[in-house]
Structures are given as structure tokens and as C-alpha cells.
Amino acid sequence: MKLAIAPLLVALLGVPVLAAGSAETLRGTGDLGIAVERAQGSLQWLDTTNRISLGRIEGLGDLSHASAVFSRDERHAYVFGRDGGLTQVDMLAGRVVNRIIQSGNSIGGAISQDGRHIAAANYTPGGVKIFDARTLELVADIPTESKVIGLEDLPGNRFAFSLWDKGEIWIADISDDPRNPRLTKFTGIGTQPYDALISPDGRWYVAGLYGENGIAVLDMWHPEKGVKRALPDYGRGEEKLPVYKMPHLETWAMVGGKAFIPGVGRHEVVIVDVATWTQEGVIPVAGQPVFVMAQPDGRRLWVNFAFPHYDRVQVIDVPSQSVVQTLTPGKAVLHMEFTPRGENVWLSVRDANRLEVYDTATFRKLAELPAAAPSGIFFTPRAHRFGL
Amino acid sequence: MTYTIPFLLCLALPLAAIAGDTPPAPERQRELVHLVRQECGFCHGLRLTGGLGSPLTVDAMKHKPLDTMTAVILHGIPGTAMPPWQPFISESEAVWIVRQLQEGFPP
Fold it and tell me: Domains (ranges, CATH) in chain B?
């Protein structure tokens, strides 16, 4: 009997180890990604080299308005769901490895510069919670008595976020003691900040204001100088169009000292000089922009639109500041994501239930992948960028 | 005289209630459900549990006046992020949406 059992044990124990260690299963994570299937709480698990789905990852709760960040080794994604869920996904295994419900209603989050902590921005109850990135253990709780938007990671293991109801920007510094974040509060920054971004170099934290004209700008090199208001005259005296979808600022395009931002309630992209934070002009487009994203080479901007003009995507040539291409992928293009060096762009076309991949040089469609009501697309190279 | 009283009653009734007596055709109902779940869902949540916008769950909606809610959908709320949906939704459709929200919105 002993003889019979021993090989069986070897077989049972040995096979999985061998499989995990064999050369054919080893691979990197730099060309992986996820697309949110917002209606059914699942993800498409994507391979951007082969332009295929590796499968579906299920069990993530309510993913309306979900977003994701990646661990600094690109092994794990952290997905923030509307239901307050924070889900850790293994990008190599293609499955959920940890999941907590951390609040009643959440909208997004960030990962610290050193990758050790995850911060989640919450609506109900309003505040920011900070978690250990390995275990998802709660490390700190920062109540704000306001809906929190625009939570971004900053150099120096800090987070910045804005308070929709109070018109404030707070910085939480966890560099000394993550369990006791040091808070710096900027009050009176403007009415209803609706989203914010950190510039790719980690210097400028910029909040868009919904309740009034202009934007709020905080220079992280000189936070002691306080929050400055910019573009106060943008659109003054003009009637705004109704806004059926709030623009997103997170992936704001900054190219050659200029920022290209979605005009709120207007069919235009606004050009801003970053040195002076003054408006240089506008580029008319086919609807109210939601995302204005620069290709990694900075040469072109890709713009998608709010309801009811969200069946199209326009491409702007940066040097001539003009629209050079209009694509019509179908109803409800919700998001765009570039491959790491931008040779391809992936689009989610919600009502067509598919992802589409385009060649950014020729605008030729390269692939279509089925996906159930897809929204956000997130590729792992975000791991190495501020604010993503 | 017998005709006068119902006629006056009609005038006294909110316009919305009358318009709401003709529900949208089934195909349009499906479009409206999709519109509420998807477009309204950006702010109110796909499951209508709220977000930047208020919750639109049965508990949140059942005691709200039909007229007021219909007007909010059609005209928005100035000074907030709620836009007017009048270009895309008729009055009778807005009434139908409010009633569905109050009874439990279709999936």
C-alpha cells in the first residue's frame, strides 16, 4: 500500500508546482489589462499584444462608474466599485484574490507612490479610507462630511482629493505614519469640484469646478502658496448647455506646455497654457467632450463625447489644433485606452457590447472583441504613472 | 350639470397624471429603461442607489410627489448637476419613469 500511495502523492503535489514553474506558463504582465463590464460586475481580461480576451473575471459587485489602479509590479489590479467594493485581481491568474466592501458608495481611488497603500474615495459616508495594498486591511480613515472626488496619488507618498459639497482640497501625507495621515486643508477653492487630475510629472493638482466658471490649481512644488483659481472668464456670460455626463479630467492631455481640457457644457476642447494657466483658445468638436486623451507621443488627442453625441470619437492634430478624423464606432463610446507606446487605442462601445482596437496611425480597425456593456479600460502600464 | 363636475375634476388634476394614463409603447419602454439605467446611472448608479446624484430607489422615491419628480426629469434642477431631459423624454414618458421608480424600476 505504501508503495502505491507514494507515487500518487507525488503526482498530486508535484503536478501543480511543475505547471506553475514550467517555462510555457511564465509570462510578463506589461501587456495585460482589464475592461469593466459595468452591468454585470465582471471584467474582460485582456492581452494587448495579441489583441484578445484571456477570459472573464467575475464577482466584482456593482461596477457602474468603476475604476482601477495597478500594483507597482503590475501583478494586481485594484478595482473600485460603486457599491463600495474594493477588489484585488490577480492579473496573471485572471481571478479575484481579495475583496472587501469598504464603504456604502464609492467612486475611485489611488495607489501610493511606494505601492504599499491603496486609498479609496467615498461618497457615502463621505471620506477617504487607506488600506494595506497586500492585505486590504484598513490602515486609516479620513472622514470629510462631503462626497470625495478627484483622489490622486502625489510624489512623497501623499494623496490629494477634493470635496464636492464643501469646495475644499485636502492633502493626506502618509510618508511618516500611514495610520495617522497628516492632513493639509485648502478651503474656498471653488464651488462643486467634480473631478481632478495630477499632471504626469506629479506637480499640478487641478480640480474642475462644476458650480462656477474656472478651475482650481495647486502647485505641489509650492503648496504653501495655496490654491490658485484659473480660467475664471472661461465661458462667462454664455449659456451652458445641459451636461448629461460629467467630463473626466484624470487623463487630461498635457502636451508641450499646453493642457487640453474638456469644455464643460460646451462643444469644445479648451487649450490652456500651463505656465500661466490662461486660456489660449478652443477647438470646436462634435459634442461635449468627456475624455480628452493625448497619445503617448503627444501628437494627437483622442476625444469622446457625452450623451447624445457619444456614438463618435474625434482625433485632433496637436500642431494644427484641428480635427483630422471622426470615427463612429457606435452608440456609447465610454472610454479609450492606449497601448503603452500608443500604436493602438482600445475603445469600449457600450451598447454594441464590444471593444474595438484601432491603429492610431492609420485609424484602421484591427480587432473587435465581445464584451458586455463595457466601460472603463485599464492597462497595466498605468502602474508606473502618477494619477493613474 | 352632470358633465361639469368630472370636467372640473379633470382641470384640477395635475396634467402629469392625465398624460401618464397613456404608457409608452413596449419598445419605447425598453428604450427608457435602458436610458435610465445607463445614462441616469452615470450619476445615480446603475442600481439607482445614488452617487453624485441622489438615490432613486423605491424607498427614496415612493413618497415623492409625481408632479415634482416629473418636472425634475423634464427641466432639471438649476444650480445642481441634474440636467433637463426634455429634449429626449416627453412628459408622459417622464411620468411613466417616475411611476416605475416608485414601484421598483425594471431591470
Answer: 16-103 (1.10.760.10)
